[in-house]
Amino acid sequence: MDTAQASAHWEHVYGSRAADQLSWHQQHPEPSLRLIQDLAPSPQASIIDVGGGTSLLVDALLSLGFTQLTVLDLSETALATARLRLAAQASEVTWIAADIRSVGLPRQAYDIWHDRAVFHFLVDAADRQRYVEQVHRSLRPGGFLILATFADNGPEQCSGLPVMRHSAESLQQVFIKPLHLRHQEHISHTTPAGVEQQFHYTIWQLQGTGTA
């Protein structure tokens, strides 16, 4: 699916349902918030939430005093909803409406890259490689990637699209050096409709120069 098709799909998804009715909605953004707090060197840590959409994670981070936050999503509608919800605080966040596969992110800009929404939709190997290259370029040396994907016993589709389920073993075939696996855990997410979804959370640390 190219950028135009993907954008049209997600604009329809976010435009047709309330944010708190979307399957990935979390009223309390755990365990992402816990992991970020554990890893962030200070409230001035530069954090990007890839596929942040209408997630409440940015609200929680702002309330904790984090000051360098970026939210990226393909859907302008999703980002507009989040900005409206945050009101005056929205100006404290950098908002990027773009495709992570092709966006020109600043080099070595982020201490923490968080993604709970995008990577499992990359069913094409070339798209996964583009994603990895973006991480390598944009994370600072020593920085962390927090990645949540559908686990190998998770759903096979989401929002009408096929997904790729992952285990630590499958991810290690993609996130090779200079990214090193530091932590993994399984999390059960209950959707607003009451359906249980299994997620696999991993933490990776970028070593070396951090260049691609």
Structure explained in plain terms:
With 212 residues, this protein is an alpha/beta fold. The chain has one domain: Rossmann fold. The strands form 2 sheets. It has a 7-stranded mixed beta sheet, sandwiched between helices. A two-stranded antiparallel sheet has the order 6-7.
What topology does this entry show?
Layout: H1 3-16, H2 32-39, E1 46-50, H3 57-63, E2 68-73, H4 76-86, E3 93-97, E4 110-115, H5 125-138, E5 139-150, E6 157-158, E7 161-162, H6 168-172, E8 179-190, E9 196-206
Summarize this structure briefly.
The chain is an alpha/beta fold and 212 residues long. The chain is 28% helix and 29% strand. It has helices spanning 3-16, 32-39, 57-63, 76-86, 125-138, 168-172; strands at residues 46-50, 68-73, 93-97, 110-115, 139-150, 157-158, 161-162, 179-190, 196-206.
CATH superfamily caption:
Vaccinia Virus protein VP39
- Number of E-type strands: 9
Residue ranges: pLDDT <50 for 5 or more in a row? none
Question: Please, what is the oligomeric state?
Answer: single chain
CATH class membership: Alpha Beta
Query: SS-based structural class?
Result: alpha/beta
* Proportion in β-strands: 25-35%
Q: Helicity range of the residues?
A: 25-40%
What is the CATH architecture term?
A: 3-Layer(aba) Sandwich
Shape: globular
On the 0 to 100 scale, the average pLDDT is 93
Instruction: Give the strand line-up of the largest sheet.
Output: 3-2-1-4-5-9-8
The tally of structural domains comes to 1
Number of helices: 6
Largest sheet: 7 strands, mixed
* Run of helices and strands: HHEHEHEEHEEEHEE
